[in-house]
Amino acid sequence: MRSLIRPGRERVAPLVIFGIIAAAAAVPFAFAQNLDAGKSAEKLFADGCTACHRSPRGLAKGRYTLTLSWFLQDHYSAGPDTAKALAAYLVSVDTPPPGAAAKPGPKSAKSKPRPSRPAQSQ
Question: Is 103 among the domain residues?
């Protein structure tokens, strides 16, 4: 009976399989990297936020840094460090709307009431 495998293949196939396994084991594993690590908050905003937001002003909307960083971490940033840096930056550039600065405080009493006019005799 004739073999369906060509002569010499039974020696080559295990060597090829061993070579593939050895090459795969020699390649270092790709670990996840934070590409935003080490960037300034301004650079983080420029790289990730300017596609939708023209300016960082007004984005914090009076929120606390902690709650804003939680929101950014859940939805937009790669990790807690970048979220905290970006939140601190947004809070630092947050300005009140133009009309808010013009709001008067509670009215204080005027200095002194005017004395009444003396009655004119006729």
Answer: no
Q: For the stretch 7-42, what's the b/e string if a residue is b when 16 or more beta carbons lie within 10 angstroms of its beta carbon?
A: eeeeeeeeeeeeeeeeeeeeeeeeeeeeebeebebe
Identify the H or E element spanning 73: helix 65-75
> Residue 79 belongs to what domain range?
36-94
More confident: 51 or 26: 51
Q: In which band, very low, low, confident or very high, does the pLDDT at 58 lie, cut at 50, 70 and 90?
A: confident
22 vs 46, higher pLDDT:
46
Q: Residue 80 domain-assigned?
A: yes
The answer to whether the CB of 24 falls within 8 A of the CB of 17 is no
Report the C-alpha gap between 120 and 122 in whole angstroms. 6
How far lies 102's CA from each of 24, 33, 49, 97, 110, in Å? Answer: 67, 47, 30, 10, 20
The pair of three-digit structure tokens given for residue 119, joined into one six-digit string: 């009655």
**81 part of a folded domain:** yes
